[in-house]
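Lab manual, section 2.4: Encoding a predicted structure.

Procedure: take the sequence of the chain (329 residues), apply the prediction step described in section 2.3, and record the output as structure tokens. A sample record is shown.
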Amino acid sequence: MLGLTSVVLVAIAIVIDLVVGDPRSLPHPVVIIGRAISALEQRWNQGSGKRRRLLGFLLTATIVLGTFSLAWLSLVVLTWVHPWLGLAAELWLLATTLAIKGLAEAGRAIAVPLANGDFASARNALAMVVGRDTEQLDEAEITRGAVETIAENTVDGITSPLFFALIGGAPLALAYKAINTLDSMVGYQNKRYSDFGYASAKLDDMANWLPARLTALCLWAAGVLISWHSSALYWRRAITATCREAPRHPSPNAGWPEAMVANLLGVQLGGTNVYQGAVSHRATLGSPLETLTFSHINVTIKLMHGAWLLFFLLMAVLMSSAGAGGVWL
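Recorded output:
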């Protein structure tokens, strides 16, 4: 499939996500992937460390390759039945890999009650998208959680799926979502998952390596554009500060969008979080030039929209110039 055609189809999928989002009435592929992971994890995550690591590799290969193969085969069959049916399925599957509308809505669900002084509702909305305890958080900490979530998920939920969708269509984009779901379910450094989830965590790190860094660059460019038209952001030193601070994050990839957003906003992210009563300390990113308030959530949403749009345009130019769209049908 020619690169220009792949760009057009992904652009249509973006519009579908922006308009429709993820309707709860329709089955979502990630839910099905998650159920498969859960079922296999219960059967295979047992035995010695070496056995667990080996079975973890098998889980990763089974889920990722199975997701790609099933998506590819389904599109082949549906296209054989009727080309328009295959096209509709391709667009729907592509749209399910994106979370542009959902991420923006999640951010606004926190910012709106926070702006009205309704801390209880803001805490509840934040608890829907983070794992940390939110009951005792003040405005600054609620805002920090929201900003960190939007920044990190700009990669996981938008730019990385776009990257793989443009390279390999819905099958590869769904394979990426399988990788991401595996990491979110078994990629933990604890007694239960440190061995079993090793392969999943490492593959997720590799899959997001390039998109995370390109996203940070696109966030910076979006910050420059926003500064020209509305509130001024601290973009002049953001790139050098981000390159210095991003490696402090425990994730090799999440630190790049988070550090860039922190430095653009002139705020400090990271620090102390509490998970089910257990205190966790993370390195700080950015400098506290401003006190975190609900307005920073709204600006972060603007940065997110600017970043994915610039990322898509960059990839579109590269794909159209190359004239090839990978393994698309």
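Check your result against the sample. The radius of gyration is 20 Å.
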